[in-house]
Structures are given as structure tokens and as C-alpha cells.
Amino acid sequence: xxxxxxTTPKKRLTSAxxxxxxxxxxxxxxxxxxxxxxxxxxxxxxxxxxxWKQKLVQMEGTVEDQFSKRVTHILAMSSKALLEKVCxxxxxxxxxxxxxxQWLEESLKLGxxxxxxxYSLKTxxxxxxxxxxxxxxxxxxxxxSQSDDNESPRDKKAxxxxxxxxxxxxxxNESHGVKTRDGTNNSGGDSNKDVSLPYAPPDLNRNITEIFxxxxxxxRALGEDRRSFSYYKAIPVIEKLPFKIESVDQVKHLPTxxxxxxxxxxxIVTTGKLSKLEHFETDEKVFYRFxxxxxxxxxxTINLFGEVWGIGPATxxxxxxxxxxxxxxxxxxxxxxxxxxxxxxxxxDIKKRIPxxxxxxxxxxxxKAGEEVLPGVRDNCSDASQVSVVCGGxxxxxxxxxxxxDIVITHPDGTSHKGFLAKYVKHLKDLxxxxxxxxxxxxxxxxxxxxxxxxxxLCTYPGRETRHxxxxxxxxxxxxxxxxxxxxxxxxxxxxxxxxxxxxxxRLDDTGLFxxxxxxxxxxxxxxxxSLSLNTEKEVFDFLxxxxxxxxxxxx
DNA sequence: GTACCGGTGCG
DNA sequence: CGCACC
DNA sequence: GTAC
Length: 556
Description:
This protein starts with 35 loop residues before the first strand and ends in a 12-residue tail after the last helix. It is 33% helix and 11% strand. The strands form four sheets. A five-stranded mixed β-sheet has the order 6-8-11-10-9, sandwiched between helices. Strands 2-1-3-4 form a four-stranded parallel β-sheet. Among the domains are: 36-110, 3-Layer(aba) Sandwich (Rossmann fold); 205-273, DNA polymerase, domain 1 (Orthogonal Bundle), CATH 1.10.150; 289-351, 5' to 3' exonuclease, C-terminal subdomain (DNA polymerase, domain 1), CATH 1.10.150.20; 354-375 and 383-477, Beta Polymerase, domain 2, CATH 3.30.460; 493-553, DNA polymerase, thumb domain (Beta Polymerase, domain 3, 2-Layer Sandwich). The protein is an alpha/beta fold. The radius of gyration is 26 Å and the shape is globular.
């Protein structure tokens, strides 16, 4: 039954922090006496934020939860984060200081307020006289973290392929809602302004992130997911830095960068390489004394096997131990599942990236095919009802090439989606568009589960034979917004949204937003609790109190 | 010392 | 169940 | 490998 109506989340940021003033060994003193801070929480780990607030208050500063005239200092992780929180207009008349958090860190470290010069985010009076050296450098960062592909380190077989064509400015923005025949957006409608900003991925420090990227793969191949994940988290942190790292001191206090990574960074900036990585790449044995016995292995082979769709670290290792050494060997292996066989057969194809243009063509093809399977309400009625087919994933985020296609489907009438996928897949096979199946699951018919139907498979661009990975997801209209968000990503954003939801007492996933029922409610069978009803992406963002991001702004 | 991102299909 | 995937 |  109707779960308690959720009260809208409070807009307040975390309130004044527990003032349990910590002892603080030496008289921290009133370093920040008289200063009034507004902290932009975007892109800051909550824990970190909390610590900073605490410090500021300890040292007699004041922290405001809202941006106001009283504020003398704004601190932000980046200019982008800043603008998400404070609009440019209100910033212009602002006379105080706008600084990077690093200013605070340095000040805390040295025990005195360091010069604001180097940390200013202020864009001078606007218009003509641009800021001095202040910062144009900061303007574009965090934008193009070229975590090219899509998602987590887990998935997507970490193909480190180049998509470095930067971001295509021509972001097809589609609509966030359900497309209706006559082109009106019957839902997602959000701000339609298509701001094609001048992207310019900063990417100083590529020297470091590239090496860390390799370590991610290596550790994953060794089954050390945790460690791998640590590097994964560190990369975006480093990427966002507005300067090129030349000394370890500059990264000493960054989150996710601890002792070891500092050492690594030190070695990289001084010698240009990382001996640890060299070892991994050349020797192939030795390191991991404790694993040595088990893995008398070449990391490469395991890595390679693991790149086959359907084969993960465990299976890759098994296959290696069975004596296989090449992909060709695997073809004779009986134990492979159907999916793995398909993944193996089209190994090279699947790795190829798809040009944006082609994805767009295929999106149209898919939309058309959808309408053929499920003809919409004709007639003149303005409210035509038509199946909606949107390509999410990196495509929707505006990337120039895509590793695969994530198709999110729904129907405005709220019922016609049922049973649609099966017919749709059949039709697409008749069109010779879908070529091989990987996974096919349907729930909409039984009404069990949340009613999402899913298909994973391979498709081809009309007239060609190259296989591309494609996912089709059919959502009931009422939870469509959640599916669209989840499948548009990126994963960093998804996780941030989830965490925010949790902090507000909810659980968020691609099938909805639920009151965090504690423990009891099993989720099998018909869900006991229904998702809160939010019709558009915008509504979800708003509900969570997260600043709206256009799809192409979601490459966090 | 220990947790770290979560949920689902397949075999 | 464990493995793989998103 | 990092943070609690």
C-alpha cells in the first residue's frame, strides 16, 4: 500500500556539523576568525566536507548552509562544481573570494592563511578584461574525464580504447521524456536549452592516470578487485586537478590518494615511469609471492581471456589452468556457455567502437521498428501514443564513439510495453538487425518483479556484418525515468545519486526509488513496495536535491 | 582490523 | 550457489 | 589500495 508519502527532502545541506569541538591539540586559534564560508559540496566526499567544516568552525570561521550576501569566502572543488551550485548571475556581484578547496588544505597544513592568488576561481568582472592568470585553467576540467567507455571497472571489460576524439559538441539531446509521434515531449521535458559548451578536457597528469589505468586492469586480472577499485577511484580525482602535478606535496591530502599512491605519483613525476608497472609488464611472474604458486601466469593471457564477453576473472583463470593459451584454443573448449561462445566468435567485432553517426542511424532504425511492431494511435488527437526508443549510455552523454548501445524503451500509455520486447526482438531479427543473442529475460508479462524486460545481444549496422553489442530494456512508463537515468550513466553519477538517496532514507536503482525498508521486505516476487512515482529525470534529480545535469554533462 | 557498489541472469 | 554483466 |  501507499507507503508513507515521502516528505520532500530538505534543501539544507548538512547542518552545522556536530560541534563536538574536538580537542585539537594545539590552540588552532582563530585562523579563520571573521570569515564566512559557503562550501560547494559538489564533487566533495561528504566525509571530507564534514572534516573541513569542522576545521573551519574550530578556527572561528562561520559556515553558511546557504549562499548569501554575508558570505566572504566560497570554496569549491572546481569551477564546474561551483556553477552547479551558484549561478553565474549571483556570482558576479559577489565581492568575496572564490577559492579551490586546496586553498583551505594548504592553509590548514601551514597553519596560516596562504595567499589566495593561486587558488582563485574568480572570473574577473566578466566581459572584457579576463581574469589575470587567475584561472582559465580551471574553467574546463572535470569535463572530459575521458573515462571513455561507460562504466565501472568491473564491467565493460576495461577496454582502454581511444575515444579521445574528445566530446562531440553536437550533442544530440533528444528528449528526456517519452517521445510522442508529433514530436512533443510528453514528459521528461526539462530545460531544452542545448548549451554546447566549448569542451576542452584538461588532462594534465595523463602520465599518471594512464599508468593507474593499467594497474586497474592488472589487479583485476589478478582477482584483486578491491585494490583495482582503489586505482579506479583515484583516477577521476587526479583528472580533476587544475594543474600538472610536479611534486607529491600537491596530492598529499587528496581523497583516495594514500601513502602508496603518493609514492607511485612521486616516482612517476620524477622518473616518468613506474617500476612496479614495468615489472608487471615484463617479468610476468614474481611479484605476488603469495599468488605466485597459483598464478604461474602471464597476466596477459588471463587478461585476454577476460576480455571475452561472458568470461570473467574466475573463468579466465580456469581456462588458463586447463592449458589454454590463445583465443583460438578456447574455441575447442566444451565448457563455454552460449554467451561466451558468441563473445569469443565476435571478439574482434565487439571491441570495435561505433561512430556516433552510426549509432544515431541505428537509433532511428530502432524507433521506426518499434513503431512497426506497435503502431501508435493514429488520429489527429494531439496526444498521440507512441512507443519511445532512446539510445542511452555514452551515446546520450554525447560521446563521439560508443562501445555499445544501451536502448531504453517505454510506452506512454503505461501498458503497451507488456510483451513488446519479444515481438520487437523477433522483428529486429527479421530485419536482420539483431544477429546473435546473449541474454533475454522478460518480467513484464508476469507482472512480477518490477516488470522490466531485458535483451542483450549483437546487432549489425545495415549493410554491414560487424557485430556490435546492444542492450534493449523495456520499462513500464511509471518507472521509466529511473531506467533512463541508470542507463544513461555514467556510473559515477549513478553511484552519487544512489548515495544521496540512501542518505535521505531511500534506495535508488534502475527500477525506482524506494523507501529504505529495513531488512524485512524480501524483494522477490511482486515487490511489496512500489517506487515513488516520478515521471521525468528532472523530477528525480529534484527530489534528490541534485542539480540538474543535461545528459552530456553526466560524464563525471 | 575491516569494509569498500548493488542487483540480476545464467549454468 | 558462484560468476559475469550492467 | 584507501578510509573508517
